[in-house]
Amino acid sequence: MHSLRGIAPRLSLTRSSVRLPLPLHRLPQSSIRIHSKHFSQSPSHRLPSMDPNVKQHYLADSPPSVVKLEIKAHWDTLKDESLRRYAHYMSRYVLFTAKATVARTPTLVSSCNTTLTVAGFFLFHRAAFEGTRVTLRQVSPESEPIYDLILSLHRAANGDWAGLAKKASVSEEDLRYFLEYAAQFLGNCGNYKGFGDSKFIPRLPASAFEALSSTTPETKDAFQKASTTGGGIYETAEQSLMHLGYPQSGHMTTYYPDSPSITKDEITAVGDLMEKKGLALENTRLRKTTSGDFELLIASGVSNPPSRDRDLGETDSFELEGSLKGKTLRLVFGDYKEEMAKVAHSIKQAELNAANDNQKRMLEAYARHFGAGSIESFKESQRVWVKDQKPALETNLGFVETYRDPHGVRGEWEGFVALVNLERTRAFGTLVDSAESMIPKLPWGTDFEKDKFLSPDFTSLEVLSFACSGLPAGINLPNYDDIRQNLGFKNVSLGNVLSAKAPNEPIPFIAEQDQEVYRRCRDPAFEVQVGIHELLGHGTGKLLQETAPGEYNFDISNPPISPVDNKPVKTWYKPGQTWSSVFGAIASSYEECRAECVAMALGCDFEILKIFGFGDGTVDMDGEAGDVLFAAYLQMARAGLVAVEFWDPKTQKWGQAHMQARYSILRTFLDAGDDFVKLHYTKDDLSDLEIRLDRSKILSHGRPAVEKYLQKLHVYKSTADVEAGKGMYDDITSVDSWWASQVREVVLKNKVPRKVFVQANTILEGDKVTLKEYEPTLEGIIQSFAERNV
Ligand SMILES: [Zn+2]
């Protein structure tokens, strides 16, 4: 389960996600208060006081980094007629969300005279955005009213924000602060950061916000509601409530509604019981009633689904055990009922005209999941989805990732539609075809490699739309281990998310003389890196195993010779042992590091650079391919430097697998000798710190240093030598006091606000579908949401 989420906008992809260690996140238990205190509401003008130094950590980004999710070029390449129809009907769907009413759905479907593959897709798409309000409600009670407030202000402004501010006697600066807040809010689909889980609050005074909202009765009401629901728009009396987490620690969560006294142990106990009974929890919330009993709220379009559609049949009440003896747990269907009903209805419409049996099966399963709340049905939909290999359009939706539930078991709503990047997919295909000639160039022999290269599933997509609290840079689904092991999974990178950037985004730590080549080549370089990392990185390597007692997948009488010490190997995986069971907590970062090193080693191969369209395959550091290679090394070095942001000084631990790996690769560069890479600065506070990387030494110093490191990573992994592997990795990823204090400080100082994405809408005019893009501005993102109208 190797993800790209770490690379850009979000953390890892899988359930073993790491939470960012925020300095303010963990507060002493003494600050525990009960939610109801906050929810009983104080009007906005009587805000609780918070130390200004503390408060500044929570102020909205000024300005946020608003970027366009570029899709037009890929949209325009949809030449194939069937692809165009796909897109056409998907777009019709989006139009319908623009004027959405459920009653229109049947018309929509019956007017769809092409295959239902198409209808399925556009109904999915519709369903994904119908869930926007579910995502909002999963963040905080106040998120949905704040969303409505922003949309009502957009209507009141009617395209003239300055005019609205003037009418309300609000200063230009305060208007800008409002717009900045609104953009960040929409980009995160709620008022807590999608990455980091802390609340952000507007920079304009509450009184100015109230004044801005005073011009129409609608905006007035909306402001009142947003200010008095949940924790309100601004800071809360208790700092703990500014972070998502367990209610027990005074944190905000909506996964345990109306349950101020629910404890972590109780949540665990209920979870354990349900696991025993075989009920997964992704689409649930848990409520503790005043009597101390529990209700498991299950997302479903009906309140009383027929027992044949329920995962646990007729049983809907359980006696709890252990410390909860005497209490009961009741299953309560119909959570998010209205939204789930709409989604299930859309999908049932699609199912009526299914193009083939597979699709019918998938749609049926989805409909049962959203209609009756069956997770077994959701898993069935995912099984069919996994088998649908390399479709032209890719989509998925549901309660998928569990990062935001403090307990890490309940999923957040998300849904996306994406187009395949044909050009890049071709390059990846050629790269896989070249594996046979490329793998022998890696620093280990055939004993440490699989007999036959099996290419991991990997596709490059461009996102048309993604409804969620923060766009990932990649997707690796489904999360269910039994499906992953038996049927596989899809591993996808999202190209236009990865490459999105603000027009004049500063690039700290890159020397002036390298800025031009870096700006020009960092995207192509990253594309090469990602392709090699995913396909030849994670795709290579053999684990030496005793597969069953006395049986080995290598010659035990004449064991392979380790290239690290030129001695026969002495360790291997025993029956039942796996890579992650042996390497434990470091396994995921270590493997990311191995894949990154493969990318750094083979990225130096001009034949590979040619596959991606750079150069003619001959070694030439001064040509275009050389530029891309230089940018790739520079980019890795820079990533390794800024990685220290993800190292937590309090716990002395890394919070992000990829970044930990990149830090170790930078250290490898720095130790490569002859000043191959230097961190250059003249000031004591490192304020002029920059990376000096000698382009002429990449092949002579950089590559050999990486290969030496890679060889050890690989052989220790292959031979289950956790002692040597962990020793090396802990050492090279250790952070000394200079890095921890001085470097980290200058890195944090240069941090660019997290990106918020402006996504396009599509509009049907007559028979023609047009893509409507929006300016990557504060006003643009608000407009895009307003016109999506969900
Ligand atoms: Zn990876």
Notes on the protein architecture:
The protein is an alpha+beta fold. The longest helix has 23 residues, at 515-537. It contains 30 helices and 19 strands. Helix 4 packs parallel to helix 6 (116-130). The strands form 7 sheets. A 5-stranded mixed β-sheet has the order 6-7-8-10-9. Strands 2-3-5-4 form a 4-stranded mixed β-sheet. Strand 18 (761-765) and strand 19 (768-772) form a beta hairpin. Bound molecules: zinc ion (ZN). Zinc ion binds next to helix 23.
Q: Secondary structure elements and their pairing?
A:
Blueprint: H1 35-39, H2 52-55, E1 65-68, H3 72-76, H4 81-98, H5 105-110, H6 116-130, H7 132-139, H8 143-157, H9 161-167, H10 172-188, H11 206-212, H12 217-228, H13 264-277, E2 284-288, E3 294-299, E4 317-319, E5 328-335, H14 337-352, H15 357-372, H16 375-387, E6 393-401, E7 412-420, H17 422-433, H18 435-438, E8 459-467, E9 474-477, H19 481-486, E10 490-494, H20 495-498, H21 515-537, E11 546-548, E12 551-552, H22 579-583, H23 587-602, H24 606-611, H25 624-642, E13 647-648, E14 653-654, H26 657-670, E15 677-680, E16 690-693, H27 698-718, H28 722-732, H29 737-749, E17 755-758, E18 761-765, E19 768-772, H30 778-788
Parallel strand pairs: 1-17, 3-5, 8-10
Antiparallel strand pairs: 2-3, 4-5, 6-7, 7-8, 9-10, 11-12, 13-14, 15-16, 18-19
Helix pairs in contact: 4-6, 6-14, 8-12, 8-30, 10-30, 14-15, 15-16, 17-21, 21-23, 21-25, 23-26, 23-27, 25-26, 27-28
